[in-house]
Amino acid sequence: MRGARAVAGMIRLPCTVCLCLLLGLNQTLAQSPTVQERFGAALLTPDNTIGLDNTVRRGARIVFETREAPVLGPDQNTPGHQLLRQLVASGLAAGNRGDLYENRDRGHSRLPFGAHPQMTYVVYDGALEGQGVDYGLAQVMLFDAPLIGNSSTAVTGPIWRSQPRLALTSPGGARTLYQNYVSGQIHVYPEHRDHDPERGDLLPANTPYVLISQGSSGSDQAHLEALVMIMAAFRPDTKARLLETGLIAPTVQMVYRRARNGIGTRDAYLSGAAHPSVFSADGINLAAMVGLANAITPDAVPPLVRLEVLEETTPLPGVDYFGDGLSEMLFDTPSAIARIWRSKEGTRRMVVTAADTVDPNGRDLTFDWVLLRGDPEQVRITPLTADARYALIEIGWQDPRPAPGTPDILSARIDLGVFANNGAYDSAPGFISVLLPRHETRLYELAPEGGKHPVEITRAAAEEIYFDPMIFPVLPWSDQ
User: Fold this and answer.
1) What is the C-alpha separation between 189 and 170, in angstroms, rounded?
2) Which of 82, 149, 235, 441 is 20 to 30 A off residue 7, Cα-Cα?
3) Is the pTM of this model over 0.90?
């Protein structure tokens, strides 16, 4: 369902990176020690990185050496590789000089150095390794250069989960991913058991901040190569503009999603097929991704969608749902909002605005609010202003449905996408996600005053249907 598409003029250009942490990053790093690249590697230590005020995060300022290296290794000869070589050789593409790569699984699934010789590899010394700064979810380091990374790891034990699900269910985890995103970092993590026919799609929300690969160890490799090649394919002046505006990671995400196999039209891009929780390697089209990235000119770079919830249904704990200290708010970040449906009520509403979205070059913007997954009969999007920067979203309770493009994987999540178009390109999506408890069966009847009245709620046991213990408490009874 597409709810709104309208035009709005831009009259101001605030900084894209709004978080105080990131606003002060460059200023802090300007006074910090530098990390000198040597032979394609940058060694990080406690002494050449700096702590960022009032956070657990550290920053690194990289000085890149001048060295001659081809953009690709000799064994890569698909049409996409050949196109990238030609563009770099002619000066029409920037290549990967000044780009970072970090492996966060200690070599378990490392990007081969010989495949992308211009990349600078981040290396952590023993002290930082001892603190775990180099391993698993990227939660500590921020860099003054664009970075592609990966970690082919997962959490095991009673609260087993992929690294993305860990981030999305941990306090502050989604905001950390957003900080990485606007500082120019994209990491690839395998879904490892979180997106399979056995249990369905277990990701509690969708975000544009990372890429999640279908599969386990090593499934991230094809996606890493695609991201590195997109980064290399930008025109030199466009890449400089993306770095200046903090838009390089959002633009890489847009190119990756827009140029995948099967996403040949704008309508396809504005659909759930282009924005699943998890991406398979089968959809990667390197030639299309290189071509689209190289076509973007500096005055046409797409904006970053910025969202804010203004009003929403607020249930009462102990009345509308049980669970001491629980909330329906999973997280609010500027480009991804997530809620958990705990309330017994059969409908919910939100008023959301994209008013803070601006184009980096002052272009007029149009907005599309799109249902990406969920029951279209139970979701209604209504623009509240002529420019469609504000929308009312009404959602009715619904049963799990197959995730887009994967009929054998059930999803109990509703995703809405918000896209800004500047007349040249659509932006990367902003997401609004609502997670429903898949282990609950609910019976509603239409109330005389309108809406749905709950009649019965039955909860399956954990051994019958898996539900995330970090989100849903065990309530082994039925409500009538």
Assistant:
1) 16
2) 235
3) yes
